[in-house]
């Protein structure tokens, strides 16, 4: 269907956005066609609300949750450290059984733009400089292959853990190409389902859509909570149903230690009858940029680090421990039926969070400007905001050095950078080989010190183990 500019004159004016067409006379035929196509995809009716809502939300003081939050009592948090061997083995057994019966899928949140890391390509394509040169995507793909193999060898099955990958306009095409070029890292292409989340316009503080170019609106993904709309838009729940997937492990792309479809976590959540779950680690320091799992007005949920007052984050208990210490590592468990409920009843109730960003724009003279301070509002939904609709939410505390080392920032920054990610993985693998009985030696044959657990320290040796060899440090038993 052909679209005409006239179709947008009136609606954009009545939405208070007539300026989007201000450079129309300067656009060539081709640019006009592309722009019209973009405009056609905008929800023009919702645009006015979106712009006014964004400006209003950015101008009003953020909702202070601090008076309403309380920590989750420790007895409501499952814990790897505090559980006996029997429980851990039982959860792992249950998780592997579900995996072997094709009941488990994984879903990757990979629509972000990698702004903090400073790359122009999807974060999953990042190579942190491991001896193997593997990227995050490759490590994750190989962990899926391994967990399938572990479930199969235990249960004599030939199972599949489908990999759903939520991308955005920024990341879909490069991710698809990358997977294809790498032969899907040995996975069956039909078991990898990529889909796109929606984009929404970035808005100025006075509620005007930002033009990135004379014929292009500055669009941004709708946050990782855009997942629920994207599941509907792309019929992902139907795909899960067709495959018999009952449980989904949802995770962020940037954690180099992520355990894909972790059977212990899946087994824990399933055996507790949970519909929703979150993995947490003990926060390292009060201002660590991680959300905290807590209760707000009695309901379990995550409060994001950007939305908590420093004095609350710094509260300590009698033993000096942080009161709000359950750090969200963006590893979530959902049952398909809970996601179905969210899709049908709750997804439109998700809160919109305000993010103030530097958004490149064209000024009134048509000159492109890269702002040095925040000039725009991006509205984002958060993936964990559905926890409050859960009937049985569980949190599961895991060991940081085994499960959490996110890649957020570029090298040179103090934390969560390529070096810390690489060191965490190599140190973990040194620990694995030493606990399997190996002694690491230096080039003179002298034993090396045992690896430290801090991501800030260099590992004693460049010891990397392929996920195809070991998933969580288990040693292959040779018959
Ligand atoms: C909306 C959202 O999911 N925020 C998550 C996510 O933070 P980002 O700063 O958005 O990457 O990952 C953190 C863990 O790396 C987690 O603590 C936080 O709550």
TrEMBL record:
Question: Which PANTHER family does UniProt cross-reference here?
Answer: UDP- GLUCOSE PYROPHOSPHORYLASE, UDP-N-ACETYLHEXOSAMINE PYROPHOSPHORYLASE-LIKE PROTEIN 1
| InterPro entries for the chain | Nucleotide-diphossugar_trans, UDP-sugar_pyrophosphorylase, UDPGP_fam
Give the similarity note: Belongs to the UDPGP type 1 family.
Source organism lineage? Eukaryota, Metazoa, Chordata, Craniata, Vertebrata
Has keyword Hydrolase? no
Q: Which domain of life is it from?
A: Eukaryota
Q: What is this protein called?
A: UDP-N-acetylglucosamine pyrophosphorylase 1 like 1
**Coiled-coil ranges from the UniProt annotation:** none
Single Gene Ontology MF annotation: UDP-N-acetylglucosamine diphosphorylase activity
One Pfam annotation reads UDPGP
